[in-house]
UniProtKB/TrEMBL annotation:
Keyword Iron-sulfur belongs to the record: no
Protein topology in the membrane: Multi-pass membrane protein
Transmembrane regions: 41-62, 111-130
Name recorded for this polypeptide: Copper transport protein
Keywords: Copper, Copper transport, Ion transport, Membrane, Transmembrane, Transmembrane helix, Transport
Chief location bin: membrane
Subcellular location: Membrane
A GO MF term: copper ion transmembrane transporter activity
Organism, scientific name: Alexandrium andersonii
Amino acid sequence: KGEGFCSGVLTDMHMLGFAVASEENPCLIFLFPGWELTGPVRFWLAVVGSIALGVFAEWLVAARRWEAAWQSTGVGRPFRVQWWYRQLSSSALYAVTRCMGYIVMLITMTYSAELFVAVIVGLTLGHAFFNSASSPGEDLSLCCQAGSGSRRQGRAAPDMGRVLIDEANPGHRVRFEVSGMTCESCRGTVRRAVETLSGVQGVEELSLATGDMIVVLSMSEDGGPDTIAASQAARVVSAVEAVGFGAKFLGSLGTTAAG
């Protein structure tokens, strides 16, 4: 049964540590009953498949980041994203990502040296293709996945942001409370999600410690400052929630003034 490639005894892992394929070692069962690597063709197909699964696992990490950014910016989106759609799509991607992570883990737990190397090669290729520009740790949580993928994403950012003031059209300052931020990448993710909205001049302040966020809104729309603040607040809250955080509108702080 081993076709001269392995001993013919079936196992789902080498029990004595890492081993290479040889006539002295058992034949591996690859993930499912019936997928028995009893010959060189099957074995090397499993190696190629392990590389592909590693690449796919890294692509899923990037896909979650792209999906969160797409929901927050609305670029190329023909419809308004409802809360249930955000939850459904992000949860589905999360489930598939975690499932793929466990599959890759099970392959490495066979203790086949060739399959282990194949998984590492696949993950490395996937990282190079899809995630090399993202900050370290982005595959740990949605917090660090939802950004634009800049290499600067993981660096510390100051609490205060410089917002340019248009003297002919000063902005309107509004205050929010943001919850769920645990790292600098979280803060960068929230800032980018808000600043990409139309009608937002910039984020003046975003505190990681307290969650306070002050946003400067454009006053080019019709209506008074309070009307503008109320109409824009819901969009800001939705943008923050779309990237995995909570937000609450606390009120208006008045208009900006040129210094």
